[in-house]
Amino acid sequence: MCEVAARWTQAVNVQAGGQADSAVWTVPNVVSMLRLALVPVFAVLIVVGEDVWALVVLAASGATDWLDGVLARRLNQVTKLGQMLDPAADRLFILVTLIGLTWRGVIPWWVLAVIVARDVMLAFLVRPLARRGYGPVPVTFVGKAGTFALLYAFPLLLLAAMPGGVGAVAHVIGWAFAWWGIGLYWLAGFQYVRHVRRLVTDDRGEAQTEGAA
């Protein structure tokens, strides 16, 4: 196995706490499923204009994003489903929240375009990884930090639409989180692309060496 592939496998194993099992109904998985269940709830609330309840749902989503990872490590309940469910729930909630807030005019359309473009870029990495038998891209600290920043930015930006001093403060802090989140989100995306590119290049070199031998 090439050096980059070995590091890739090690990163996945470390992220999984050494080994992931096939259990489904674990506490962290239930928390992640709850976050997924909140997605349509938020969509309805934002459409009908129930901003206070939408704000509560956003805050709850941000809390569960932190909670499921902590529970998985502390309870030793890291599962294969959880490794896929957690980032999938994050991305889906971010996408639906962006669409809802853009539709309401809370954030400009370019924020939606910039964040979606990054996920579209990463979608092109799935095929070369799958063809070589590698699992999903291991989540990095930068990527998780970017996700956290965005999930904290959204409720603040929704709160910023309210009149008065609270809205003004929320506007400043919310956009600070949003800019940091976008920057970290894209930085992590470029890191993923670089790692996959090196992985594919090293695999090809190793295959050519074995063929020549």
Automatic annotation (TrEMBL):
GO terms for cellular component: membrane. It is found in: Membrane. It is a multi-pass membrane protein. GO terms for biological process: glycerophospholipid biosynthetic process. Keywords: Lipid biosynthesis, Lipid metabolism, Membrane, Phospholipid biosynthesis, Phospholipid metabolism, Transferase, Transmembrane, Transmembrane helix. Pfam families: CDP-OH_P_transf (PF01066). InterPro entries: CDP-alcohol_PTase-I, CDP-OH_P_trans, CDP-OH_PTrfase_TM_dom, CDP_ALCOHOL_P_TRANSF_CS, Phosphatidylglycerol_P_synth. GO terms for molecular function: CDP-diacylglycerol-glycerol-3-phosphate 3-phosphatidyltransferase activity. Gene3D superfamilies: 1.20.120.1760. The chain crosses the membrane at residues 37-63, 84-103, 141-162, 168-188. The keyword Glycosyltransferase does not apply. Belongs to the CDP-alcohol phosphatidyltransferase class-I family. This is CDP-alcohol phosphatidyltransferase family protein.
